[in-house]
Amino acid sequence: MRKYIVGFFVGALAFTAVQASADGIKSLVNTKVGSVWELHVDGKNVGEVPIISGSSYAPVRQIAEIAGMDVDFEQGKVFLTKKTGVDYNSPEVLKSKISEKMKRITEAKSSIGGINIHVEAHKKTYEAYLKNDPEFAEGYKADYERYLQAYLDEITDLETEIATLESEIADLEAELSAK
Q: Fewer C-beta neighbours within 10 Å, C or N terminus of the chain?
């Protein structure tokens, strides 16, 4: 009997929360988007989310599919259902995760290569100014240093991401070898 009473109260609480949430969403109609942030799942940029009044609003279908759920829309309702028969820790899924992370590492390394090309171009431009027009070079120096620092910061961020991905790959490979 106690289970039924607890179940009733949990259901009532959930219904109240959903109703309050729906009222909150309706109040957002015609509200200005404060900002837009990137949405990352497992280190991969999968889209953007608007930030409205300090809350993020992510696309339900995209998030649910990433989480391995089926999504249905019916009569003004959204239904999320766990897919049956999917083992998210199966060797195939783990290999797929490893592959995605390795792909992101390749992309990050490629980005670093592109950034290094920009850094070298800025260095050559600055050196040419120093040689041919030292007065102009002095005025350009602050911009040069700002660009250079931004590039170096981006490279540091990418290298940190690569290290994180490599660690995650090692964890996944250990999990895979334990199966």
A: N
